[in-house]
Amino acid sequence: MTMDYAGVTPTALGTDAIIAVASAIIDAEGADALTLARVSSELDVTQPALYRHVEGISGLWRYLGLQTRADLARKLTEASVGHSSSDAVRAIATAWRTFGRENPGCYRSTERFAVAGDPELEQAVQRVIDVLVLALRGYRLGGDEAVHGARALRSALHGFVTFELGDGNPPPHDPDESFDAMITLLCLGFEAGVQRGNDERATSICDTKDEGGNE
Question: Lower CB count within 10 Å: N or C terminus of the chain?
């Protein structure tokens, strides 16, 4: 299968061009189709020329994971603009699921390497979490609560999309209904967190007043 890569020529060869070609291959044909020989053939360059830009096939997969997370963060940022609280969560969730469906091979590339211990991968994941934290600011969650909430949201969305891409949600239940139910439960949880925080603050104020009255 020969693909058309407009603007990508041997003289334009670089990491970005290699990643673009590799992304197209795995999204169209799956991970097994990705080899350095295939990429060099699509770019009409020798395979050794690729090694000037990527450290073998494992280095290429790592770059794909980095790029995919950067693309996901950008899509989530765009989706969250103008939304707050539950509307922001639903917009983010829909964008996340759509991204996975439109980029199935690239999305699965994020599972190839452990994140912890790799500064670049850690930063790439943190950028995604930062977007989620901003999306949750309408709930007025505290610092750690916001981070935990963002991690929970990320885990739920990544898990659902991963199952969906791997046909891991068997019938008879409609996956769209399951997805909507999951988002509703998450939003209820965030709202409950806000109420719990309000109750704790109210209790703290009452305790302070009581202590002042007993002095």
Answer: C
